[in-house]
Amino acid sequence: MFAGLVEELGTVAALVDQPPGMRLEVTSQLVHEGAKIGDSIAINGCCLTVIAIDGNRLAFEAGPETLKRTNLGQLQVGDGINLERSLIIGDRLGGHFVTGHIDGLGDVISREDDREWSTFWFRCGKELAQQMAGKGSVAVDGVSLTLVDVADDRFSVALIPHTLKVTTLGRKQIGQQVNLETDLLAKYVSRQLQFSPTT
User: Fold this and answer.
1) pLDDT per position as a tens digit, 27-68
2) Would you say 121 and 110 are in contact if contact means Cβ atoms under 8 Å apart?
3) What phi, psi does 67 have (nearest 5°)?
4) H/E element holding 163?
5) Is 189 helix (H, G, I), strand (E, B) or coil?
6) Domains with residue ranges and CATH for the chain
């Protein structure tokens, strides 16, 4: 479980084909401290397991399902990535509950910059938009954000200068893909409504 509060921008150090999956190695300035093999760390919002540690270099394995459903398969060596360690019971929860299980990909369709501030619109699947509501929460590349407007197949968020500076979102341009995770409670409500009797 995560909070959607990115701890740092890490760097992709190596990508090693391991058909049908891939080994992903990243370097960090912070999240490697105290890390142990078997720990869960969110990379662009996707929960992965640490399989090897070498100083500030952490290794993970991503299977074909992960590579298909997230933007991790599009990474290249040198890319920046959002990193967050899993929550510890008793931690402050400044974002919202994020599982690290990506629901789908979204596309940046609009970016309006106003000095150091930005408003983004993302296109997403209608089934994901149905789980969103204005002033609700969504995780975009693992970043906990408040929804501004939600339409049938798109939504907008307003990003403060700090978020743009310390996460990958500040580097996103129109056409680029992001990992999306809708609010956990919204998923259960949506599922329940599917089986509610109609009146």
Assistant:
1) 999 999 999 999 999 999 999 999 999 999 999 999 999 999
2) yes
3) -65, -30
4) helix 161-166
5) helix
6) 8-85 (2.40.30.20), 104-194 (2.40.30.20)
Mean pLDDT, residues 109-137 taken together: 96
Contacts of residue 144, Cβ cutoff 8 Å, sequence gap at least 6: 3, 4, 5, 94, 95, 96, 98, 137
Six token digits for residue 62: 């991503």
Tokens of 177: 């893909």
Bridge partners of 180, per DSSP, are 104, 140
135-164 confidence digits (pLDDT tens): 999 999 999 999 999 999 999 999 999 999
Instruction: Tell whether pTM > 0.85.
Output: yes
Distance of alpha carbon 23 from alpha carbon 15, whole angstroms:
6
